[in-house]
Design brief:
With 288 residues, the chain is of the alpha/beta class. Strand 3 and strand 4 form a beta hairpin. It is globular. The two termini are 21 Å apart.
């Protein structure tokens, strides 16, 4: 939602325009997200801002094929002693951050492994609103500099919702894998109630990953415990997603999710004043 708001502000000239807007497609997003992407492309075309899709494969297919690379999702784990754990999260880096960085290097004209010269960088606008300012982080590479237009304008999530409603786009669905374990009950209910095909697909996926990665098993390295999409450690088709707040397994509010470049870990981003000072000090060509 916040990212779409930033995009609209650029298209309308409220903030400096972008050379391009990038969407990292995991290959397994809700149908509503792809509809929003089509809308963004039409809006961007009128404003002269191309919306480009980047991808590093289909996360669902890769997770279930023994011959595919093994990238762990943060699945919930029922350990052999009955305790709950969580698998490592590698999927955000593999399916979002890596293809975005690759595309940025190509836009700059320095694809990997060509070294990007010092002073050549892009301003990478990230949609983080004032109510989640703690998630704003500086870039970990020299050829991108993270900027946060919503923070600079003092816009909250509520402000973004208002802006989207005013433009007839109030029912915005956040981008996240259908099978993301960070999904709360409310998001899972939404998938179940609005897209039966996606729900059936998700239930089948939940069953298929019960004993870990097919590739790890094929290589004689089975993962310990049982794996689940839902934090209750129950098969998804057995979870009561309609339980009320305060009862067992109730979890109405979706967790933070796994937006690229906005993880809770890591040092906070610099202030707008510091970013402005950096912009003045850095020589050479830039691209937005």
């Amino acid at each position: 939602m916040q990212s779409l708001c930033v995009f609209l502000l650029a298209c309308e000239g409220e903030i400096p325009p972008f050379d391009a807007a990038l969407f990292a497609d995991t290959g397994w997003e809700p149908k509503q997200v792809y509809a929003q992407l089509d809308t963004a492309r039409r809006i961007g075309a009128r404003a002269g801002i191309p919306v480009l899709t980047v991808s590093n494969g289909n996360i669902r297919h890769d997770a279930l094929k023994p011959e595919s690379r093994f990238v762990t999702m943060p699945l919930f784990v029922k350990n052999r002693d009955g305790t709950r754990g969580m698998a490592r999260r590698q999927c955000t880096g593999e399916y979002k951050i890596k293809p975005l960085k690759k595309a940025i290097r190509q836009i700059l004209g320095y694809p990997h492994p060509t070294r990007v010269p010092r002073g050549v960088f892009v301003d990478q606008a990230i949609g983080i609103s004032t109510d989640e300012f703690h998630r704003a982080k500086d870039s970990d590479v020299n050829y991108t500099r993270n900027i946060f237009p919503l923070l600079d304008l003092g816009l909250s999530r509520t402000d973004c919702l208002t802006l989207l409603r005013e433009r007839g786009m109030g029912a915005v669905v956040k981008s996240s894998c259908i099978g993301c374990p960070y999904s709360g009950n409310s998001r899972l209910r939404f998938i179940r109630d609005t897209d039966p095909h996606a729900w059936t697909d998700l239930v089948e996926f939940d069953k298929a990953i019960r004993h870990g990665s097919p590739r790890a098993n094929a290589n004689g390295k089975p993962l310990r415990g049982q794996f689940f999409i839902h934090r209750s450690l129950l098969p998804l088709d057995q979870v009561d997603l309609d339980v009320t707040r305060g009862t067992a397994n109730a979890e109405e509010d979706d967790p933070d999710g796994c937006s690229p470049f906005s993880c809770r870990s890591g040092p906070p981003a610099t202030t707008p004043e510091a970013r402005a000072a950096t912009q003045i000090a850095v020589p050479g060509p830039t691209a937005r």
